[in-house]
Amino acid sequence: MGDCIFCKIVKGEIPAVKVYEDESVLAFMDINPINDGHTLVIPKKHAENIFEIEAKDLLAVMEVAHKIARAIKESLKPEALTVVQLNGRLAGQMVPHLHVHLIPRREGDALKVSWEMIPGDMEKIKAAAEKIKGALR
């Protein structure tokens, strides 16, 4: 937490171009934007990822992400919007503070988000589903 760049932004120790702020959530422009309008939405209370954040804080982040997404659509008129939330370095998370990327998209932009659709083994799919269901609390 002490070295967390997003916590420093929340405290005002590092400047940010803020888009929205309330008691529990902050939205600001990404300084390494993929496209114009690339916005980050974070909880003010530090949580490294989706596994650590309290449900109420995650809900607050997603409510603000929804509000900002609609504002991006109205103001910037993108053709589409990519919403990304990564958890852990292997998933591509660079800053260990939960954040949601809102990335306006236009035909031919540089961002490539896709994967090949390969049918899975239904028995493995069903087995994984049973394990997940068994772990629900």
Q: Care to describe what's here?
A:
The chain has helices at 5-11, 55-76, 122-135, and strands at residues 18-21, 25-29, 39-43, 80-84, 100-105. It has 137 residues and is an alpha+beta fold. It has one domain: HIT-like (HIT family, subunit A, 2-Layer Sandwich), CATH 3.30.428. The protein has a five-stranded antiparallel sheet with strand order 1-2-3-5-4, covered by helices on one side. The longest helix has 22 residues, at 55-76. The protein is globular, with a radius of gyration of 17 Å. The two termini are 28 Å apart. The model has no long low-confidence stretch (mean pLDDT 95).
Provide a quick synopsis of the model.
The chain is of the alpha+beta class and 137 residues long. It has three helices and five strands.
Question: Mind sketching the topology for me?
Answer:
Elements: H1 5-11, E1 18-21, E2 25-29, E3 39-43, H2 55-76, E4 80-84, E5 100-105, H3 122-135
Antiparallel strand pairs: 1-2, 2-3, 3-5, 4-5
